[in-house]
Amino acid sequence: MRHTIQRAEGYLKAEIIGDDPEKFIRLCVSEHVKIWHIVRKNETTLICFIELTNSNTLKRRLKDTNCRIHILEKEGFPFLLKKIKLRLGIVAGLLFFLMLLLILSNMVWSINIKGADSKLEEHIRSILKQNHLYEGSLDLFVPDTSKLENALSTKLTKVTWIGVSREGTTYRINVVQKKYPKPKEVTGPRNLVATKQAVIQRLFVETGQPVVENDQFVKPGQVLVSGIIGNEKSSRFVSAKGTVIGETWYRSEAQIPLLSRYTTYSGADYHKYQLKLWNLRVPLWGFDKEPFKHYDRETLRKPIRFLIWQTPFVWIQENDRQKRIATRKLTVNQAIADAVESSDKKLLDSLPKESKIINTAVDYKKVVKNSVYIRTHQVVHENIAAARAIDVKKEEKKLKAKNEE
Question: What angle in degrees, to the nearest 10, is found between the helix axes of 77-86 and 88-105?
Answer without folding.
Answer: 90
